[in-house]
Design brief:
This protein is 42% helix and 19% strand. The protein has 21 helices and 16 strands. The strands form two sheets. The chain has an eight-stranded mixed β-sheet, with helices on both faces. Helix 3 (109-118) links the parallel strand 5 (100-105) and strand 6 (123-129). The radius of gyration is 26 Å and the shape is elongated.
Length: 527
């Protein structure tokens, strides 16, 4: 669905085109001066895919065109650092957003830095991509100066050249689309004025005043844009983190978008679990997940109490991460051994979370009993109570290690949307429950074929790859993104990234191209 473009008016009367999509903590994606057109971007496959993946992580994504370009007012006299901040302020005020995460790249970096320093109560996290505190570091680049004359003499050739600089000389079709976007978003005269104004940007004085969690990112292969600006930001902004990623495209959506998306997601979720804390416990009807380690007494005897508790704590952290990734709320104080309890507002998300929890338990060597039920809950002091919670616990106790059972209520809510198959286990008597409850076993359908081997191949994998790593490798070879792999195998993005790191280490790969070649050589590609 195409985003609905609306307009915000700045204090100096400039109309700024913007849109917002998704639900969850707001993330403002502040574009650069050259490649920004909030409507045309949606029709570029790489841009649209990257935006959709951010929305699918449970965020409200906000985009806008800066003054002078795209669908915003172009006949604007004030293109200064203050004017660009006014654009941002007008958009978030128009959309009723009080506090938000802010991603800015290239020339939008200095306005974002200044805004974050001036408004620490409004910016939750700041992410700075391939930028510098001073605009001259990119507006006055030799490459830009070398082709400046083309801007007036041959506008199409100029846009193609700039697009090649930014995306890489081997980018192909994305370069053509980016050049077309530039020609639609700007006139040669306007772009020249924007470059001139950007060269005067200087946010250096604001760096030591930024007090929000900050992640500074740069791509190693963008050699024409030195990383000295990123390193300066990381050194002068208090407690800023620096991430130098592989890839050669200035645009975030190209090169290795999956790696960037995982890096952003980890940064946004790692800060005291803010995203999880902001989700309120649902009142009234909720879908309840209960998980418990299978045969915990025997495992304690075999591993020793200290070793078992250490493994259980690690798994508990992994499960809470998985639950949060699927828009659920883990109840604090419920530890493994006593059970992990979580509540959801969606049966589909609860089932996906339970499957991912089951995979995490198997990976940790601590298989889980998993049970789901839906019903009314009582919310009190960060906890939930009620008969529905008791039923979820009892259903969990019926399941075999590694198995998920759900009540008829959950199956009825999810059977048309969960992407799973249900196996009837009949009516069961549950302790403390007067009426029998019909339960169903749940298995994923998307991943059921992934683990099948090509006909005639024996289950003996080279280089000590595990069966799960083979599943991931086969999906890499099939061209799946990390997000698609996480959905098909019902794993968290972080777990997928960990498997890929392990695969690369075992087979000596440096990229997904290397991994695909390896899979082809060893006949591990899907049929």
């Amino acid at each position: 669905m195409e985003p609905r473009v609306q307009y915000a008016r700045t204090k100096d009367g400039v109309s700024i085109a913007c849109w917002a999509m998704g639900e969850g903590p707001p993330l403002v994606w502040m574009g650069d001066a050259v490649f920004s057109h909030v409507l045309l971007e949606w029709h570029i496959p790489e841009c649209r895919s990257s935006y959709e993946s951010l929305i699918s992580q449970g965020r409200k994504l906000i985009r806008f065109d800066q003054r002078g370009g795209g669908l915003s007012d172009r006949n604007v006299s004030d293109l200064s650092l203050e004017g660009r901040q006014a654009d941002l302020e007008a958009v978030v005020d128009r959309l009723g957003v009080k506090k938000f995460d802010l991603f800015a790249f290239v020339d939008s970096g200095p306005p974002a830095m200044a805004f974050a320093a001036r408004n620490p109560d409004r910016v939750s996290h700041l992410m700075l991509w391939c930028t510098s505190p001073t605009g001259g570091d990119y507006a006055d680049l030799p490459q830009i100066e070398a082709v400046r004359g083309l801007r007036e003499r041959d506008w199409p050739l100029y846009t193609e050249t700039i697009a090649h600089f930014a995306l890489g000389w081997s980018a192909g079709e994305p370069v053509r689309r980016a050049a077309e976007l530039m020609r639609e978003a700007f006139t040669p005269e306007t772009l020249g004025r924007i470059y001139q104004a950007t060269a005067d940007f200087d946010a250096t004085a604001y760096l030591t005043e930024i007090r929000v969690p900050t992640l500074v990112l740069h791509r190693r292969g963008v050699s024409w844009l030195p990383d000295r600006g990123s390193r300066q930001l990381a050194s002068e902004i208090a407690d800023a983190r620096l991430a130098i990623l592989d890839g050669n495209s200035l645009l975030p959506s190209l090169s290795d978008w999956d790696l960037l998306a995982e890096t952003l997601d980890e940064f946004l979720q790692s800060d005291t679990g803010r995203m999880h804390q902001e989700r309120r416990l649902p009142s009234g009807t909720a879908v309840i997940l209960f998980a418990d380690i299978a045969d915990s007494t025997a495992l304690t005897e075999r591993l020793g109490d200290a070793a078992f508790r250490a493994k259980a704590r690690d798994l508990d952290s992994a499960l809470r991460e998985v639950i949060g990734e699927h828009a659920g709320t883990a109840i604090e104080g419920k530890l493994l051994g006593d059970g992990v309890l979580a509540v959801f507002t969606s049966a589909r998300q609860a089932i996906e979370a339970a499957l991912a929890c089951g995979s995490a338990g198997v990976d940790a060597g601590l298989p889980l009993h998993l049970g789901l039920h839906a019903g009314d809950v009582i919310r009190e002091e960060g906890n939930v109570y009620g008969g529905a919670v008791n039923i979820a616990s009892r259903i969990s106790g019926l399941s075999a290690p590694g198995e998920m059972l759900v009540s008829e209520t959950v199956r009825a809510l999810a059977r048309t949307s969960a992407g799973v198959k249900f196996e009837d286990r009949g009516e069961q008597r549950l302790r403390g429950v007067s009426d029998a409850v019909r339960v169903w076993a749940v298995n994923p359908t998307d991943a059921s074929r992934v683990g099948e081997l090509p006909r005639g191949q024996e289950r003996a994998y080279p280089d000590h790859l595990t069966s799960r790593e083979i599943e991931v490798l086969r999906l890499i070879a099939a061209g799946r993104t990390n997000l698609e792999i996480s959905r098909e195998l019902v794993l968290s993005l972080r777990t997928v990234a960990r498997h890929i790191t392990n695969i690369y280490g075992k087979i000596g790969a440096r990229s997904k191209v290397d991994a695909t070649s390896y899979a082809i050589r060893h006949h591990l590609t899907p049929d």
